[in-house]
Design goal:
heterodimer, A: 313 residues, 7-stranded parallel sheet, 29% strand, B: 9-stranded mixed sheet
């Protein structure tokens, strides 16, 4: 059975979350990866290592979710695939939703397990911002799964995939949204993609003290995040706000510095594999959700931690 | 301009999450329900457009009679009228089909909702409504300005922002800081009681998904408090194996 995996790129490189999606797909069937952005052939072929047999690459970059859904629907019909996998991202969610209607599929978002097909076709999905799970049966023959980060390990043992160009037909109706410009930080680890996140809260006392957070993040190759009060006070941009109404993260390690751990913040981080809390207040609720904790002053602990990590490398 | 604002009726963000009936139902005991926090941003932006350009604002919710206090709150904030589709909202597609059916009949210029509901977090309904109506959908939208028939919007993307333009009609999934939340005032609460809240029946369709069982994550085994940075680094390296 062939499984289509939609892969995304950032600055010409296939995103790690998309490589995970390819490995996820390879646990279900024969993966045909589909790329709709500009990526060179060698980079495309490398998703073979992650489990794809073939890559379909659009001959022109496709930018709107409407057009991407049409392009994927055409790939579904040309390959005869009945399952489409994609890593959840700000761009893919709308594509998955539109595609599911175009191909009359059952759709699941926030998937955190490989499908269980012993009885029916069931997947586990995160709900209440990762505070609980729903086991969902997908009843239609076609399926679209939007998969959360860290659901499977990325496979690295395959051979390069064959890259084939294809030219999806895009109608006028798919091009009604005009993208005027994009304002994006380059060369930075993206928060939703990051394997390690270092986050700061009000305990850091002011935006001028973020240097040590950034130093620690740099030493770890991590992204920086913050709590809601910090973004509300404009100490940090809204795009760094982690929590129920901000970015939800599921890194391998989440390091919270000077964040007390309000329930809405915890909701955004509780899918992290390991949580480290650094706080002067030993009664901070965050310690209850943490794996490791240091009760201490961030201004002393954080620079020491950065040094210790640099010393390891 | 006619605006449709779609609202979800969800447990308050501080609610305890537990399940009942053999883990097949969310336990509503003692739970306070609210307008979805992201939907509140959609209502607030719709109110601003009503004030600046005389738009009419209709709110819609897909839910049983229990959601009416939540709908009345949206009317108290200032929506002109409301529609409740009288059915249990079983999944995103089903909800989108109900909204699309109403939208087809009434021809709204703008359909606003939150970027996602805070219970199921699917974030799919806006795109599904757009697809069913064959109009664009954008989400998450942080800024939305309308001039004539065209809207200029700022969308959040990973690591930055995208500036886009689309002609009406379209669907937008909203998030902060698109507008400041509105809190109903006394006059709003009084007038909300007499505003029209039309109850309509659902349009039937096939079932795409079904929740078989809910689960809570296993409890954390407890935090290890360490005294030194070296001890922490050693745990991260040797126990968690993440360094």
């Amino acid at each position: 059975m062939s499984v289509l995996v939609y892969i995304e790129s950032s600055e010409g490189k296939i995103k790690k979350s998309s490589r995970e999606a390819v490995s996820y797909g390879s646990a279900i069937g024969d993966v045909v990866a589909v790329c709709l952005s500009e990526v060179d052939d060698a980079e495309l072929a490398s998703v073979g290592k992650n489990g794809a047999g073939k890559v379909l690459a659009s001959s022109s970059a496709i930018e709107t979710s409407e057009a991407a859904a049409s392009a994927l629907a055409q790939a579904v019909s040309s390959t005869g695939a009945n399952t489409v996998i994609m890593a959840k991202s700000s761009g893919s969610s709308a594509i998955a939703a539109r595609l599911s209607i175009k191909i009359d599929a059952s759709m699941a978002a926030n998937v955190v397990s490989i499908p269980d097909t012993s009885v029916g076709y069931n997947v586990r999905t995160g709900i209440f911002t990762g505070s609980a799970f729903a086991n969902v049966e997908l009843k239609k023959a076609n399926k679209v799964l939007s998969v959360n980060k860290n659901t499977v390990e990325v496979k690295e043992d395959g051979a390069d995939a064959a890259v084939e160009k294809y030219s999806p037909e895009i109608s006028e109706a798919d091009l009604k949204v005009k993208i005027l410009s994009v304002d994006k930080a380059t060369g930075k680890v993206l928060l939703p993609e990051a394997d390690i996140v270092v986050s700061g809260g009000r305990g850091l006392k002011g935006p001028e003290n973020w240097g040590m957070v950034e130093d620690l993040a740099e030493a770890l190759g991590a992204a920086t995040g913050c709590s809601k009060p910090v973004s509300d006070m404009d100490w940090r941009p809204h795009s760094e706000h982690v929590g129920q109404t901000g970015i939800k993260v599921s890194p391998s390690v989440y390091i919270a510095i000077g964040i007390s751990g309000a329930i809405q913040h915890l909701a955004g981080v509780n899918s992290s594999k390991y949580i480290v809390v650094i706080n002067t207040d030993e009664d901070a609720p965050f310690f209850k959700a943490a794996d490791y904790g240091i009760v201490g002053d961030a201004f002393e602990v954080v620079p020491k931690l950065t040094e210790a990590i640099k010393a390891l490398q | 301009m006619k605006i449709l604002v779609c609202i979800s009726h969800v447990p308050d963000t501080t609610s305890k999450i537990s399940f009942t009936e053999g883990d097949t139902k969310y336990d509503k005991t003692g739970v306070q329900y609210i307008i979805g926090p992201y939907d509140d941003y959609a209502i607030a932006r719709a109110m601003e457009l009503k004030e600046s350009s005389g738009a009419t604002v209709t709110v819609i919710n897909v839910g049983l009679a229990e959601t009416e206090p939540t709908i009345r709150k949206a009317l108290a904030i200032g929506a002109d009228d409301a529609i409740r589709v009288n059915t249990e909202p079983s999944d995103s597609l089903f909800v989108a089909q109900q909204i699309a059916a109403v939208a087809k009949e009434n021809q709204y210029d703008l359909i606003l909702m939150g970027r996602e509901s805070i219970d199921f977090n699917g974030g799919q309904v806006h795109a599904m409504v757009g697809e069913l109506l064959n109009i664009p959908s954008l989400s998450p939208v942080m800024k939305l300005d309308i001039e004539g028939n065209t809207a200029k919007m700022t969308k959040e993307i990973e690591g930055g922002k995208e500036y886009v333009e689309a002609d009406m009609p379209f669907v937008a999934g909203c998030q902060e800081p698109i507008a400041e939340w509105r809190i109903p005032n006394m006059r709003g609460i009084m007038t909300a009681r007499s505003k029209p809240l039309n109850v309509i029946e659902a349009v039937a369709d096939g079932v795409a998904t079904e929740v078989k069982k809910y689960e809570l994550p296993p409890a954390k085994s407890g935090v290890k408090i360490v005294d030194s940075v070296d001890e922490l680094v050693s745990l991260l390296k040797n126990e968690a194996k993440v360094l």
